Amino acid sequence: MKNSRRSSGRLLLLGGLFLLASCLLSLALGSSRIPLSQILRILTGGEGEGADALIFRHVRLPRTLGCLVCGAALSVSGAVIQGVLANRLAAPGIIGVNAGAALAVTLCAAAGFSSLWAPLWAFAGAFAAVLTLALGARAWGASRGTVLLMGVALNSLLNALSDTVITFRPELAALRHDFKVGDLAALRPATLLPAGLLAAVALLILFTLYNELDLLNLGEEGARALGMDTLRVRLMFLFLAALLAGCAVSLAGLLSFVGLIVPHTVRRLKGRSPGSFLPLCALFGAGFLTLCDTLARTLFSPYELPAGILMAYLGVPFFLFLLVRTKGGHARDRA
Hints:
Blueprint: H1 2-28, H2 36-43, H3 51-85, H4 97-110, H5 118-140, H6 144-168, H7 173-181, H8 189-207, H9 210-216, H10 220-225, H11 230-252, H12 258-270, H13 277-298, H14 307-325
Helix pairs in contact: 1-3, 1-13, 3-8, 3-11, 3-12, 3-13, 4-5, 4-6, 4-11, 5-6, 5-11, 8-11, 12-13, 13-14
């Protein structure tokens, strides 16, 4: 037990250092570079209203904060959904959760609601999508592989519905494009605070429920034998996972594969030490997306690649590798 706690402590420290390094790179690099010494002066109030200070406060800092919120939210959401659906290949961007959130936000814009309502609309769409998938799989007794295929089909249907809305409301085409590519440059500061607060609340609640998530991983019969009301607990986890995915989509659009890559990587690093899985997913997910966004906007300078496109280049090979290795999600991770 002591060794497990020591290992978890080391990983939390590693995750914190990785997150710090990613944030500093995100704040410093871009079309114009800001030295770290100047960043420290701006943060401590020693820098006035120069060009670097304005760029830092109005561009770099909101974008970095958005990366942190979206990365942590999508990673933890993916980890929870994988546990609830008992399929390690399930992730918000693959099984239609993100697409449900995007459809809801598109409908929100089409109905003329303020962007401040976007996080709640996105949550409603994400929760409806994941609940439809979970209840459908339960009613039909679907296998884990079938659940994944159902999610892919649901994802395509929800994307088609979004495109249908755009067909009748072509003035929303720019919004739909931003959602499809997953671009942090299109982040709206007006939605950052409400989405960030909702995500923080959901994360804090989930961090206290790691025992319940571990019990769900024992399977339906094992969890019930230990006295768990599995239906109520699954719905609670799906509610919180959908809230996290909805917050991320309302800020940055369809950032695929974050909720797949990070939980698998953390499982390999963590092994079987209990209690720290979701916080580690949050730390590494926030740092990973922040680093990817920094690379996306600097690798091809002066051109800026949307972060969602870079994530697709990274995520598709990773998904195919896992698909072969786990036989469609059936095989248990041996870590």
